[in-house]
Amino acid sequence: MTRPGFFQPNGRQLSSAGILLLMAPFFMLIGFAFLYPLLSLLSLSVTEPEPGLSNYVRILDNPLYFKVLLRTLWIAVLVSVLALLMAFPVAMAMVSSSGPMAVFITAFVLLPFWSSVLVRTAAWAVLLQRNGIVNDLLQVVGITSEPIRLLYTQGAVVVAMTHVLLPFMVLPIYGALRNIPSDYDRAAAICGAGPLRRFAEVTVPLALPGVLGGVILVFLTALGYFITPALLGSPKEMMIATLISQQLREFLDWPFAAALVGVLTLFVTAITLVFSKVFRFDRMLGGQL
């Protein structure tokens, strides 16, 4: 027997009360594990060492922290662009393939999810070290005559973050491409459009929701990334997440670290609101147009 009000009158769809009841454990978990710690940390930034905005003024007064924020934005943008350039061909291959080939490509896209970020980052550290495979290949092909510094550079951080976040770009684009009817491409071909024109005027515009969804997922995740920049980056070119960790672990300056978290949270929230106003999130995730 179903409870009154749990289902719609037709008995096939959940009512608003039913949906809220099912979502209650999720909201409780979010409130306990995310909202409460975040609000407690943000309150610390305006109450210690004295009530006020002194911690935020400190961020504005020191140009070093502004440079860290700009560097973080630049790396997030660069990672998003590189991931997009690599993900679109892979997503197209997934859509156009079938049988064992489709399983093979999908497995390689999902393979990073089967290992931790720490393991993947450590693998890049092995590859990029002075005696690593990359340096050996550069010397074999004659590009360099001796090992060069690849590890602990901004390039190493960008490459490793692109590899780690690539699936988050591939999957939304794949969802958008899969929802494009094949009749559209055939109709454009009948009208005389060549492959490049069909790609530019049919495929790309219709896949744009998935592209935007992948870009915003990768960009927002890259803004707060910690493990990869901490292990592969240089202390002179740290990102904001590494700076927050430094304030917490080395200087034990929790109020200032909380202010840095507040700035990052405000920035991420602003970007999310802008995208939610300009683009529908269901379309961005590759839903029906």
Could you list some keywords that capture this structure?
single chain; about 290 residues; mainly alpha; MetI-like fold; globular; disordered C terminus; transmembrane; MetI-like_sf
Characterization of the model:
With 289 residues, the protein is an all-alpha fold. It has one domain (55-284): Orthogonal Bundle (MetI-like fold), CATH 1.10.3720.10. Helix content is 74%, strand content 0%. Mean pLDDT is 84; it is low at 284-289.
Write the layout of secondary structure elements.
Layout: H1 16-47, H2 54-61, H3 63-96, H4 100-110, H5 117-128, H6 133-140, H7 154-178, H8 182-190, H9 195-223, H10 227-232, H11 240-249, H12 254-278, H13 281-284
**Could you name the CATH homologous superfamily?**
MetI-like
The shape, in one word, is globular
The fraction of residues in strands falls at under 5%
Calculate Rg over CA atoms: 23 Å
Order of helices and strands: HHHHHHHHHHHHH
Helix coverage percent: over 70%
Could you tell me the mean pLDDT? 84
Find the structural class using helix and strand composition.
Answer: mainly alpha
CATH topology: MetI-like fold
Enumerate the spans where pLDDT stays under 50 for 5 or more consecutive residues: 284-289
Ends distance: 38 Å
Strands, count: 0
Family: Belongs to the binding-protein-dependent transport system permease family. CysTW subfamily.
Transmembrane segments: 20-39, 73-95, 102-127, 155-177, 206-227, 254-275
Subcellular location: Cell membrane
GO cellular component, one term: plasma membrane
